[in-house]
Amino acid sequence: QVQLVESGGGLVQAGGSLRLSCAASGRTLSSAASGWFRQAPGKEREFVAAINWSGATVYADSVKGRFTISRDNAKNTVYLQMNSLKPEDTAVYYCSAGFGVGNPRGEHEYDSWGQGTQVTVSS
């Protein structure tokens, strides 16, 4: 199990950018799959992006070309760079980590979760 602390959420106008951070402790993320999920009011939690131990990445179609997931092994931190934000990106964003992940798009594949950080995109 790894402990995750998120930061970087906030309010931004459409077309703007935010960078979310997820700092880990207790275990190194370099041996794990790390994912970002989001949940909007009245919606189910959905997959956003993931990165595995080798640095390979996968994205939801809705964020391809706009969001980038990355990891800094020295800081044991995962990032989500969000550009060209749209109102439909408004949600609580959660980072996650798992050490036995099969399908990185599945939320139940992950062992540990952050507390969530609110991202609000205005028109």
Characterize the structure shown.
A hairpin with a 5-residue loop joins strand 5 and strand 6 (57-59). This protein has strands spanning 3-7, 10-13, 18-25, 33-39, 46-51, 57-59, 67-72, 77-82, 91-98, 112-113, 117-122. It is mainly beta. The strands form two sheets. Strands 2, 4, 5, 6, 9, 10 and 11 form a seven-stranded mixed sheet that branches. The mean pLDDT is 95.
Task: Give a brief rundown of this model.
The protein is mainly β and 123 residues long. It contains no helices and 11 strands. The strands form 2 sheets. Strands 2, 4, 5, 6, 9, 10 and 11 form a 7-stranded mixed sheet that branches. A 4-stranded antiparallel sheet has the order 1-3-8-7, with no helix packed on it.
Key phrases:
7-stranded mixed sheet, mainly beta, 123 residues, 50% strand, 4-stranded antiparallel sheet
Question: Which secondary structure elements does this structure contain, and how are they paired or packed?
Answer:
Elements: E1 3-7, E2 10-13, E3 18-25, E4 33-39, E5 46-51, E6 57-59, E7 67-72, E8 77-82, E9 91-98, E10 112-113, E11 117-122
Query: Strand fraction band?
Result: over 45%
Amino- and carboxy-terminal Cα gap: 39 Å
Class inferred from helices and paired strands? mainly beta
Order of helices and strands: EEEEEEEEEEE
Q: What are the segments in which pLDDT stays under 50 over at least 5 consecutive residues? A: none
Q: Helix content range of the residues, please?
A: under 10%
